[in-house]
Amino acid sequence: MDKNQIHGTAIFTLLSMAVMIFSSATLVQCAVINLWPKPRIVSWPLPLATLLSPKFIITSPNHRYLSTAVYRYLHLILTEHHHPLVIPTVNLTNGSVVQSLIVTIHDLSAPLVHGVNESYHLKIPSTGVEASLTAETAWGAMRGLETFSQLVWGNPSHVASGMEVWDWPIFEHRGVMLDTSRNFYNVEDILRMIGAMSGNKLNVFHWHITDSHSFPLLLPSEPGLADKGSYGPDMQYSPKDVTRIVQFGLEHGVRVLPEIDMPGDEVAPGCWKADPEIQEFLSKDGSLSEILEMFLNSTFPYIVSMNRTVVYWEDVLLDQTVRVNRSLLPPESTILQTWNDGPNNTKAIVSSGYRAIVSSADYYYLDCGHGSFIGNNSKYDQGNAGNTGTGDSCLSFTYVHRGGFQLVVGGTAKPSSSKSSQRRGIDFPSPSVSVFPFLEVVSSSLRPL
């Protein structure tokens, strides 16, 4: 195979993905294994495959979360017997049967934090019985396990051999956001979302838990918030639920980033001005921006003192009506997340020295345009009107990342449950589009070479 095909750097659109999956016999004759998302470097000079032992094992260091992932992938590898639509044309090696995968971790204590090393090196020899997976951290090993699982197919199981993979992400933040304030999703739906994210090597679940629409988070210290603010007693997240989601995320290499809006995304300045205390403050020549600065001054130092980086939506600096002075948000402790005005706000943020997470509504808000905000109009099905993200538009936004914006740390896509008029399962947050296929597009968008 031509080296450029092996090490190719193309970002696939939905159309090209369809061609790869449903192509004619010409592609069937090619020795191609489509790994997803595409690793940085794949070396497979000869199209070889080896039988995988039915007693195949994975040996790894003991780790609270990696050990769970090893068990999960071992079960998948031994029981799935995946039959790809395009079966790789390979030469089966004689005699060798892969008996085990040996996992080696350099830093077993590294926590799952922003910027953690997720690199790995996977080697499956053409002879011998052992494959090897070497990673800097447990989280990189999880990415390598996903890759290995995609190299196994058939019944009896075969695995590609004579292959090496070196992989590491371009962006340390590769996220998906789910809004459970506007539309409640049960815990099982959220876990399925996180599982699908892990399969696409996405690593941040941005959990937009609360907003002005509802407050489904049950806080033992303030139980009235959920009692009065949730859609109902069966639409609340208990501390046990939160713990389960966070633990499940760690077992899948996905960090849970909670968002609790204060006071809420759609609280208009007029609502603030209706409060008697704020009225008094404004009557003394105060401003709403000064009130926001008071809030930041009371919370920002506390968060930083906990050795945390604060993430704000871009509005805190870029809003035309209520915003704070830039001096209150030192760039070394602040990340700003963009959602408005396409790449322009991202450019404004990074030009000011801030790191940015891209969540542009024009590109990364998936399936917008349905529900009570705009209406269930079929013209939005094609993603060509309104605040609408599609697979193609999501991929087209990668030019921002390649345009010299070194301070862009990644992106977060949003299945637009905020635009849904009814509660639905996680597969269908709006009438038009399933979320899970878009996770593949998001994964590709955040891993360009």
From TrEMBL:
EC numbers: 3.2.1.52
Indicate whether Glycoprotein appears among the record's keywords.
Answer: yes
Q: Per the UniProt entry, what are the Gene Ontology biological process annotations, in alphabetical order?
A: carbohydrate metabolic process; glycosaminoglycan metabolic process
Q: Which Pfam families match?
A: Glyco_hydro_20, Glycohydro_20b2
Q: Which UniProt keywords apply?
A: Glycoprotein, Glycosidase, Hydrolase, Signal
Q: Name one GO cellular component term.
A: membrane
Q: What is this protein called?
A: beta-N-acetylhexosaminidase
